Sequence to fold (249 residues):
Amino acid sequence: MDEVEVVVSHNERATLRVGDVYLKVDGDPEHTDVEIRAMAMAPIPTPQVLWHEPPVLAIAAVPGAALGVLGEPSPASQAAWSAAGAAVRRLHEAPLPPWPGRRLDDVADRLDRECAWLLDNGVLPAEVVRRNREIAEPALRPRKPVFIHGDLQLDHVFVDGDEVTGVIDWSEAAPGDAMFDLAILTLGHEERLDDLLAGYGTADVDREVIRAWWSLRSLTASRWLTEHGFDPDAPGCEFDVLRARMLDS
Fold:
């Protein structure tokens, strides 16, 4: 009998693994609807949907191993990172999904709220928050939307050798900023950006905006992570990303 492994569990959703099957339980049916539709549209490898009985979505495990995890060096080769970049480029060149993405005004409002929370609660030194808020500003520029994954963490991209075998967790997919996907994939692994871009290409890539998204994502995610049992102050994670930007100043 296969053991039941709890992969992720918090008060919004949970993911369990039983053998080669993942069971995703989400209280918001829109997340699952987006995930199923996005995986069907994406021109890159995605998990097979086995069945869907709300609020549970069953998908097959993809072969290979994740590019890595936040807070630890990535074990993947340069070629694997390059292959991931090529896959992301194919996604970004695909037709847009028909549902709306996040409005820039909403992103800016959330950024200001989360910065205020960080300052009011003394979570980080004020100069770290304020400097990263300045660095984040270019991410709020108008941009031509592309088909983005929306949560392209490196543990959502699986490779076998130098081949991408699957990209998982599509519930945040939408029209959006291409630089956001590139930033999330290299968050805490900035040294792998050149490897990623070797496959993605440098046309239309704005490194300043990628750096802006590193700051913006880390600023806006910190409270949620803290409230849901994660530690943004773990080595190599969000707070270290914010501190590293001070060294870039």
User: Anything to note?
Assistant: The chain has one domain: 62-248. The longest strand covers residues 4-9. The mean pLDDT is 95.
